[in-house]
Automatic annotation (TrEMBL):
It holds the Pfam family Acetyltransf_3. Residues 13-178 form the N-acetyltransferase domain. The keyword Transit peptide does not apply. This is N-acetyltransferase. Gene3D superfamilies: 3.40.630.30. GO terms for molecular function: acyltransferase activity, transferring groups other than amino-acyl groups. Keywords: Acyltransferase, Transferase. Belongs to the acetyltransferase family. RimJ subfamily. It comes from Candidatus Viridilinea halotolerans. The keyword Acyltransferase applies. It comes from the Bacteria.
Length: 190
C-alpha cells in the first residue's frame, strides 16, 4: 500500500518521497565517511542494498502516522542533495527532526531551507507543538542550522549515545509552535 508523503517546496528545493530509483544516489552521498562520522545511524562503509531497504521503510512509518522522510532535491533538475525526516510522538504532540546533506552540497543553505519547510508543515499542517533535534558536540555546523531556523539550545546530554567505539555528547535544540516565527519562501503542495 502506497502512503502519501506530501511534497514540500521552497524557492530552490523540492522535498518529495524517496523512490527506489534514488538508492544509488543515497548510497553514494550517505556513504561518504564525513556523513557517517557526523550522524548517529548512517554506517560507513555504507552497505550495498541498504538504501533500498531504508527507502522501503518510509511508507510504513508514514502509514502509521509517526514519521515522514523526504528526499531533498533541487527545483531545477531534481538532483538528490540529501534527506530530512520528522519522527512523531503523537501523544505529546512533539517531533524529532533529523537530516543529512551530501558533502558536495554543504555550506549552501540547503539544509536550513529544507528544515524551514518541514517546520512549516509540522506546525501548520500536522499541528505539532514542539520540534527538537540533536547534534554531536563535534558537529557545530548542524547546530548552526538549528539556530538559523529558530531553534533554541536546551543543553548538552553528556555521553548520551555511542557511535562506534566512542560515547558522544549531544546538544539538543528545540522550538515550540508558539515561539516559531514563520520564515518565508516555503510552499506546501498536495
Amino acid at each position: 500500500m502506497e502512503v502519501f508523503i506530501p511534497t514540500l517546496e521552497t524557492a530552490r528545493l523540492h522535498l518529495r518521497a524517496f523512490a527506489l530509483s534514488d538508492s544509488s544516489a543515497v548510497e553514494r552521498l550517505a556513504g561518504a565517511a564525513a556523513i557517517a562520522d557526523t550522524t548517529l545511524n548512517i554506517p560507513h562503509p555504507y552497505p550495498q542494498g541498504a538504501a533500498a531497504d531504508w527507502i522501503a521503510s518510509h511508507s510504513e512509518r508514514a502509514q502509521r502516522g509517526n514519521g515522514w522522510t523526504w528526499a531533498i532535491t533541487t527545483q531545477s533538475g531534481g538532483e538528490l542533495l540529501g534527506a530530512i525526516g520528522l519522527s512523531l510522538v503523537a501523544q505529546h504532540q512533539r517531533g524529532e527532526m533529523g537530516y543529512w546533506m551530501g558533502q558536495p552540497f554543504w555550506n549552501q543553505g540547503y539544509t536550513s531551507e529544507a528544515a524551514v519547510a518541514v517546520l512549516h508543515h509540522a506546525f501548520t499542517i500536522i499541528g505539532i507543538n514542539r520540534i527538537y533535534a540533536y547534534h554531536f558536540v563535534r558537529n557545530p555546523a548542524s547546530g548552526r542550522v538549528m539556530q538559523k531556523i529558530g531553534m533554541q539550545c536546551e543543553g548538552c546530554q553528556r555521553q548520551h549515545v555511542r557511535k562506534g567505539d566512542r560515547f558522544e555528547d549531544l546538544i539538543v535544540y528545540a522550538v515550540l509552535r508558539e515561539n516559531w516565527v514563520e520564515q518565508k519562501g516555503c510552499r506546501h503542495s498536495v
